[in-house]
Amino acid sequence: MMLLSFYIFSLFFNAVFSMVIPCHRPKNSSDITPFQLTLIAPSTRACNISAPFTDECRTAEQAAPFINKAFDDYAISSVGEKAAILSLMLFETGDFKFDRNHFPAPGRPGQGTRNLMTFPFVHQYALDTPSTHSRALALAGPNATDPSITNDTMNAVRDLVLGDELSFASAMWFYKASGPERAGCTANQSLADGLVAQTRQGWEDYITGCIFTSVTEDRASVWEKTLSVLSS
Ligand SMILES: *[C@@H]1O[C@H](CO)[C@@H](O)[C@H](O)[C@H]1NC(C)=O
Ligand SMILES: *[C@@H]1O[C@H](CO)[C@@H](O)[C@H](O)[C@H]1NC(C)=O
Ligand SMILES: *[C@@H]1O[C@H](CO)[C@@H](O)[C@H](O)[C@H]1NC(C)=O
Ligand SMILES: *[C@@H]1O[C@H](CO)[C@@H](O)[C@H](O)[C@H]1NC(C)=O
Ligand SMILES: *[C@@H]1O[C@H](CO)[C@@H](O)[C@H](O)[C@H]1NC(C)=O
């Protein structure tokens, strides 16, 4: 009897809550699946509890919903743009094993999130995000290069944006909304067109002209793998 009434109560409880709380956004046919992530990066099948920074590790299953939500929120829909952004995230975080810069130890202050942005971008992201704006401003003020900002303060600002929802969305924010024009990489339409076109030249222009780093074969092979899995 107890069990039955508990069961009925649970049904009622679930029914009420599923009516009032839309916890999950509807699945979208263009969503990246956890299985696709494991095809690109097999180590995302599980997190190794003995590995370093294990609290920062996320599996494919954990990461996929946040990645898909961020692509939707920033209206990034082409396979070419998604492949470039996702492969950058995987490359920068050792396949989602960490989301703070650790190397060389103790790591560069304030650098992190799932695309391992440097502090000036972490700071802009925290200021431009309504839920973290006032805390970021109180901690570090409006100018990311103000020399009075200490390493601890940079890390505290970074902590504001390390929750999965913000951390897995920062690469999309960077691409669409960072910088003085709040247009990110898409301030240059021809750069965005190059990614949509899925060409090697387009991807290289993104890496050198917007991420401001250099093209290496390690990076290129993650991008090629990602593009091939997302295209199939
Ligand atoms: C887990 O991490 C530990 C420590 O880094 C390592 O020795 C071990 O080989 C890893 N196990 C797997 C299955 O990767
Ligand atoms: C599905 O994803 C596409 C591409 O990201 C997006 O344009 C569309 O709004 C999404 N639809 C829903 C219902 O989320
Ligand atoms: C702050 O971080 C920089 C870069 O890692 C380091 O060189 C410097 O010694 C740190 N400052 C303090 C006070 O720890
Ligand atoms: C930010 O601080 C740096 C270093 O003090 C200074 O050179 C720069 O002009 C400041 N930027 C703004 C927008 O105030
Ligand atoms: C825009 O991107 C193209 C590559 O698509 C590059 O050749 C050009 O220099 C960029 N323009 C600016 C103003 O950065």
Task: Explain how this protein is built.
By secondary structure, this protein is mainly alpha-helical. The protein is built from 12 helices and no strands. Helix 2 runs antiparallel to helix 12, helix 4 packs across helix 12 and helix 6 runs antiparallel to helix 7. The chain is globular and about 50 Å long. Bound molecules: 2-acetamido-2-deoxy-beta-D-glucopyranose (5 copies). One 2-acetamido-2-deoxy-beta-D-glucopyranose binds next to loops.
Main attributes of the structure:
232 residues; mainly alpha; binds 2-acetamido-2-deoxy-beta-D-glucopyranose
**Percent in helix:** 40-55%
| Category by helix and strand content | mainly alpha
The description of the largest β-sheet is: none
Q: DSSP strand (E) fraction?
A: under 5%
pLDDT averaged over residues: 91
Determine the N-to-C terminus distance: 52 Å
Q: Please, how many helices?
A: 12
Number of beta strands = 0
Radius of gyration: 20 Å
Listing every helix as H and every strand as E from the N terminus to the C terminus, the arrangement reads HHHHHHHHHHHH
Poorly predicted parts: 1-22
User: What small molecules does the structure contain?
Assistant: 2-acetamido-2-deoxy-beta-D-glucopyranose
Short synopsis of the structure:
The protein is mainly α. The protein has twelve helices and no strands.
Strand-helix topology:
Blueprint: H1 2-20, H2 34-40, H3 60-73, H4 79-92, H5 119-128, H6 133-140, H7 151-160, H8 164-167, H9 170-177, H10 189-196, H11 200-209, H12 217-231
The structure holds 2-acetamido-2-deoxy-beta-D-glucopyranose (NAG) (5 copies).
